[in-house]
Design a protein that fits this description.
heterodimer, A: 454 residues, alpha+beta, 6-stranded mixed β-barrel, two-stranded antiparallel sheet, 15 helices, 12 strands, 51% helix, B: 226 residues, Rossmann fold, 5-stranded parallel sheet, 4-stranded antiparallel sheet, 6 helices, 30% helix
Chain lengths: 454, 226
């Protein structure tokens, strides 16, 4: 019987295509939903870990600590405010600090943020150069793979950054007097770095100080706090990329050659009145976690935010949504299991004479019991596979058509271990749902074939 | 009950068999023997205990009293749950309704019977049977694609495909006209001979009596006797 059982099971499944398809569709829909949630949750978790990059502390201007983390590490919010370079230097020299990476934020190019920093930032994210070299002089930039792909930017291309962090440059003031040049493109690494334009802090200072570039030429009347602004009105309306032979209201002298200008030693240079947006800090020892935040927060104008604490807070804020999603998944799974139960129970009623016949012909009660279990296993396994495959297909399609999903980096090509557990759970649900009809089959008295007609 | 008392090689031997439903006696057979390769008609009106006797002979029902020795085995001494293999290997069924497994083709129904009997597939024998019964063209058809007659012949083929020592046919002619009833009986007899099987046909149809030299007649209810 055993070697024929699978053939008979398959024959039973395919003999009723419509109920079978409906059962599979119901359960597969539940599995799909859960799979999509798992993919989102796992990707968000991994992405967050990568983007936080093991940073212990973010030092920024006073404001919301969560905003500080979001702007400095995840690059999804505006910075809280700048900190004086002199203060930053003092912190950078603290013995309890292993690395302190300065950030200069506030500018963007066509929706991609320009981050002034040093090469430690590349090491922090373990990013690798795919083409070209790292920046070694002011106004040289290295772009992330996604920037290169979406803007079709190549090595040697020049562009002007825009002041502010809007997705479009249209309403932003552009720094046409200081054009950046792409000198390197990073390998894709599925982190925030893919979507950043990295340069030196000097570049950020230069783009916001036209006098520095033009040898004290007529002063500009917009002495803005670049880090904290989103956008502002301005009467410039310049082309923002590549070509530098555009008309310009100010007739700037672009002849100043920075290709031989070394980058500043941020730790030891004369700070003057220069500022940075934030410092990303890693401690030398866990003891620092106790002392450093307190010390920094006691400084006027400085704020220390712990990524771990703030992200936990963010999770807590969004826990209601997560719980609702989990509840929906449980309800869907229950409905899926119920659909198998109903379908199998109905089928068992229709198959009562078939089962009685099998028993009369010599099949043992265990054999007919197992036939139903096999059927439950096959249908639920198929539902699970279809559901998971469908979920990945949806995300693959969505990622290629819906920009925010692409920005999030979820592409549907990664399978998670939890999806194996999901498949096993689906099979278990199928087996459980088939158990009652199987028990009914087990109890069928084959004498009914002799006692009466159909 | 009229009986043939050939004591040589009894395939089935029944002694003092009684069966009650609650307190009502529905079957009472003092003594009965069925010889190997014999064809017997079990004749009786509705309610005479034919179905009960078939159930007991096939190990589907445990008698209230008495003993049955079938194929050298005392089946009344064994629990019903242990008799599945005995049925699969030794008995071919033809039911009043054809009762083929609806999700399988006719050929697969035949293969299933051999699987249940734990016998290797003998496609040559299956094809021979289907050919004999004029079903070669319907080998891969599902039961619901067949006429009633074709389905019944398919059920007869299935009963013979394991070459069982005993074929039991329950009311095989009840819904047939005279011509078709004769055809079915002749078919069952010829096929059981071809398969080397002993056969019992249980029926209330007295038209069948002339086709059997040996028949047992069951009387209704408590009046039943051997």
């Amino acid at each position: 019987m055993k070697n024929f059982a699978l053939k008979l099971t398959w024959a039973n499944i395919t003999a009723r295509p419509l109920p079978t398809i409906l059962t599979i569709a119901t359960l597969a829909a539940a599995v799909s939903l859960i799979s999509i949630m798992l993919q989102f949750a796992n990707h968000a978790d991994e992405r967050l870990k990568r983007d936080l990059a093991g940073v212990d502390l973010v030092v920024s201007g006073k404001g919301s600590p969560l905003q500080s983390i979001l702007s400095s590490l995840l690059h999804v919010d505006v910075p809280t405010g700048n900190i004086p370079l002199s203060e930053a230097q003092r912190i950078m020299k603290e013995p309890m600090i292993r690395t302190a990476i300065p950030l200069g934020l506030g500018d963007s190019f066509r929706g991609f943020r320009i981050v002034g920093t040093n090469h430690d930032y590349i090491d922090l994210y373990q990013a690798k150069i795919d083409q070209g070299v790292l920046w070694n002089h002011p106004l040289q930039v290295v772009i992330g793979s996604e920037v290169s792909k979406q803007l079709n930017m190549q090595i040697g291309q020049k562009f002007a950054g825009a002041h502010g962090l809007s997705l479009s440059d249209e309403d932003l003031h552009t720094h046409d007097h200081a054009a950046y040049e792409v000198v390197g493109i990073l390998e894709r690494q599925s982190s925030i770095v893919d979507r950043l334009i990295l340069t030196s802090i000097d570049s950020v200072w230069l783009t916001h100080d036209e006098n520095a570039l033009h040898g004290g030429e007529e002063s500009h009347d917009h002495d803005h706090d670049h880090a904290a602004e989103e956008s502002h009105d301005h009467d410039h309306d310049h082309a923002t990329e590549e070509s530098h032979d555009h008309d310009h209201d100010h007739d700037h002298d672009h002849a100043m050659d920075l290709s031989e200008t070394p980058l500043s030693d941020l730790k030891n240079m004369n700070p003057g009145d220069k500022e940075v947006t934030a410092l990303l800090i890693k401690y030398t020892s866990p003891i620092a976690a106790v002392r450093m935040p307190k010390e920094i927060n006691n400084q006027p104008g400085l704020q220390a935010a712990s990524p771990a604490m703030e992200i936990t807070r963010l999770y807590n804020i969004s826990s209601g949504l997560t719980d609702a999603g989990k509840l929906l998944a449980i309800v869907m799974t229950f409905i899926g299991g119920l659909s198998i139960f109903v379908a199998f129970s109905n089928a068992a009623v229709h198959k009562i004479y078939d089962i009685a016949l099998l028993r009369a012909m010599g099949a043992k009660p265990n054999d007919v019991f197992m036939l139903q279990i096999y059927e439950g296993t096959i249908v639920s396994m198929f539902s699970g596979i279809v559901g998971i495959a469908f979920a990945h297909l949806i995300i693959i399609i969505a990622a290629s058509t819906y920009a925010p999903l692409a920005v999030f980096g979820l592409d549907g090509n990664v399978f998670y271990l939890q999806e194996i557990y999901l498949l096993l759970c689906t099979v278990l649900i199928g087996i459980l749902a088939a158990t009652w009809p199987a028990l009914s089959s087990y109890r069928i008295d084959p004498m009914l074939l002799l006692k009466g007609k159909r | 009950m009229s009986e043939n008392l050939d004591n040589q090689n009894p395939l089935i031997e029944v002694q003092d068999l009684q069966h009650y439903y609650a307190t009502k006696l529905v079957l009472d057979v003092k003594s009965w023997k069925l010889l190997k390769n014999e064809h017997q008609l079990l004749l009786g009106p509705s309610g005479s205990g034919k179905t009960t006797l078939l159930g007991i002979l096939t190990g589907l029902l445990s008698p209230s009293k008495g003993s049955i020795n079938a194929l050298g085995r005392s089946i009344t001494d064994e629990p019903i749950s242990k008799l599945s293999s005995f049925r699969a290997r030794n008995i071919g069924f033809v039911f009043q309704d054809h009762h083929l497994v609806s999700s399988l083709t006719i050929n697969e129904n035949l293969i299933l019977a051999r699987h249940l009997a734990d016998l290797p597939i003998d496609q040559e024998w299956a094809d021979q049977l289907l050919n004999h019964l004029g079903l070669s063209d319907h080998k891969n058809a599902k039961p619901d694609q067949l006429s009633h007659g074709e389905a019944q012949r398919s059920a007869i083929a299935r009963a013979a495909v394991t070459k069982p020592p005993l074929i039991l046919a329950d009311e095989p002619t009840s819904a047939l006209d005279d011509d078709n009833a004769i055809k079915v009986v002749e078919l069952l007899k010829s096929l059981s001979e071809e398969a080397g099987s002993t056969m019992i046909i249980a029926s209330h149809d007295s038209r069948l009596k002339p086709f059997f030299s040996n028949s047992i007649i069951l009387e209704k209810l408590q009046e039943a006797s051997s």
